[in-house]
Amino acid sequence: QVQLVESGGGLVQAGGSLRLSCAASGRTSSMFGMGWFRQAPGNEREFVAAISWSGGSTYYADSVKGRFTISRDNAKTTVYLQIASPQPDDTAVYYCVAKSSLTRNWYSRTAYAYWGQGTQVTVSS
To answer: What is the rounded average pLDDT of the residues 5-24?
Structure first.
């Protein structure tokens, strides 16, 4: 079992910045990577970003590429999401995820076995 706890969400103005954190505990040795999804009211949950645990390869949704940065601290089993140049459309509940199987798919929900409780990010204009 892996437990994920997000922090850092809140209210930010357009043009500001925000950093989300997610700390993993439990059987973290089984993780192949971690990432973030988000879900806005009335929308489906969508992929945001992910990072492989060993090599540090990163994957981004087109909508956030160039604005969001994902990173990880292996010693702390923690992943971060730096949100730069936030836009109102970035408003959503952000979920931390952990990947427990070695597959080429990093973009779909089914690739991740563990999910955090979510943290709200609200971007005001």
So the answer is: 97
Residue written as token pair 């970035």? 90
pLDDT tens track for 74-88: 899 999 999 999 999
- State the number of CA atoms in the 13 A half-sphere of 54 facing the CB: 6
The tens digit of pLDDT for each residue in 30-39 reads 999 999 999 9
Closest alpha carbon to 38 in 76, 89, 84 = 89
3-state secondary structure of 29: helix
Q: Which helix (H) or strand (E) holds 63?
A: none
Parallel, antiparallel, or unpaired: how do β-strands 10-13 and 33-39 relate? unpaired
The percent of residues above 70 in pLDDT, for the chain, comes to: 100
CB within 8 A of 7, min separation 6: which ones?
A: 20, 21, 22, 23, 119
Residue type, 118: G
Please state, as a whole number, how many other Cβ atoms lie within 10 Å of the Cβ of residue 14: 12
**Two structure tokens written together for 101:** 């199987």
